């Protein structure tokens, strides 16, 4: 097919940052997506309903003229998050999930959780309120290889957590491994997973193609080709608990190309086109609508959009560099 119409999709994992960066990147998401689950790892992090409401107001104020984009807010789970904070978030009607970052696992994760078992009462409150736990699934430790962090987290942390809290809704975000995909697909209706376009398109060879490629560096890192192939097969299978989450994460070029480069890829400008390319290559364009426009909406209990978007088979220009107030630039991901 040369053209495809689907309900306007939503992005179920997005970083918008704040301030000048928010104002620079938001239009790229608004152009394609109707709603997005917005990550709370600002500095300082979004840990209360009041902070989520204030951040939401800043996002709404930064929308392009005429945009009806709706940010769906999240709280940052810390060792001090209480059941009452969760109940207040649920009552606010603007918070749609609580994000689990293991401490120091990724960008701005210094406030992440160190002892998850100590938060069982908080997790029970989340289950009662119907707020999903959104998981960055990596286990860190001096004896854990960076490429094994996801598998070790699932085995040692996530599987026991779901067993302790069978009523809790859990999203394993940006799944990167065969083990992660198998765990999600074997789970119950309370378990789901998001997949990024870049993890469907890159493997770890791409990090070192002709030299070190900092603009292909993300966390969790891209894995072996066999894992990428498992992700692509699962994404394109039509499985009802796998859905679109870009994990689009802008960083200034100067921070990506530094002695200790930041992790994250900025995919928002062409995210839907990138997913469509993968589904087309896998002969599964008939499953793109469910993945982008229906599965996540069902899991989060959101209505499917009545607006239609059209994808056409034509070359997508390289988005290049985005200018940010103050002189910074962000390089958009483009597969080459």
Terminal residue distance: 24 Å
User: What would the principal axes of the Cα set say about the shape?
Assistant: globular
Gyration radius from CA atoms, angstroms: 19 Å
What is the H-and-E element order?
EEHEHEHEHEHEHEHHEHHHEEE
Unreliable stretches (pLDDT < 50, length at least 5) are none
Biggest sheet, spatial arrangement of strands: 2-3-4-5-6-7-8-9
Descriptive overview:
This protein is of the alpha/beta class and 336 residues long. It has eleven helices and twelve strands. It has helices at 19-30, 49-62, 83-92, 120-129, 149-164, 178-186, 197-201, 225-235, 253-256, 271-281, 288-300, and strands at residues 3-7, 11-14, 35-38, 70-76, 95-100, 133-135, 170-172, 191-195, 242-244, 308-312, 321-323, 329-331. The strands form three sheets. It has an eight-stranded parallel beta sheet with strand order 2-3-4-5-6-7-8-9. A two-stranded antiparallel ribbon has the order 1-10. It has a two-stranded antiparallel sheet with strand order 11-12. Helix 2 packs parallel to helix 3 (83-92) and helix 3 packs parallel to helix 4. It is globular and about 50 Å long.
Core attributes:
8-stranded parallel β-sheet, 336 residues, two-stranded antiparallel ribbon, single chain, alpha/beta
């Amino acid at each position: 097919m040369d053209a495809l119409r689907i309900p306007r999709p939503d992005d179920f994992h997005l970083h918008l940052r704040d301030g000048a960066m928010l104002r620079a990147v938001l239009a790229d998401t608004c152009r394609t997506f109707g709603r997005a689950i917005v990550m709370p790892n600002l500095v300082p992090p979004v840990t209360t309903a009041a902070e989520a409401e204030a951040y939401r107001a800043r996002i709404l104020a930064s929308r392009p003229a005429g945009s009806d984009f709706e940010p769906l807010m999240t709280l940052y789970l810390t060792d001090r998050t209480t059941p009452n904070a969760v109940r207040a978030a649920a009552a606010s009607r603007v918070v749609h999930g609580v994000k689990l970052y293991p401490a120091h696992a990724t960008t701005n994760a210094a406030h992440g959780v160190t002892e998850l078992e100590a938060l069982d009462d908080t997790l029970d409150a989340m289950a009662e309120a119907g707020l999903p736990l959104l998981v960055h699934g990596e286990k860190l430790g001096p004896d854990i290889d960076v490429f094994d962090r996801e598998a070790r987290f699932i085995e040692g942390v996530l599987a026991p957590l779901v067993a302790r809290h069978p009523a809790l809704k859990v999203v394993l975000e940006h799944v990167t491994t065969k083990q992660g995909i198998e765990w999600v697909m074997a789970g119950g209706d309370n378990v789901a997973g998001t997949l990024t376009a870049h993890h469907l398109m890159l493997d770890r060879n791409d990090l070192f193609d002709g030299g070190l490629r900092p603009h292909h560096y993300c966390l969790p890192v891209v894995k072996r080709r066999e894992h990428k192939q498992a992700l692509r097969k699962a994404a394109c299978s039509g499985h009802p608990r796998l859905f679109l989450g870009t994990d689009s994460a802008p960083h200034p070029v100067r921070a990506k190309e530094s002695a200790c480069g930041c992790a994250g890829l900025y995919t928002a400008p062409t995210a839907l086109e990138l997913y469509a390319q993968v589904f087309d290559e896998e002969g599964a364009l008939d499953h793109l609508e469910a993945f982008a426009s229906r599965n996540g909406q069902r899991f989060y209990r959101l209505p499917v959009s009545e607006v239609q978007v059209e994808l056409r088979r034509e070359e997508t220009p390289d988005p290049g560099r985005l200018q940010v107030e103050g002189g910074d630039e962000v390089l958009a991901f483009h597969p080459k």
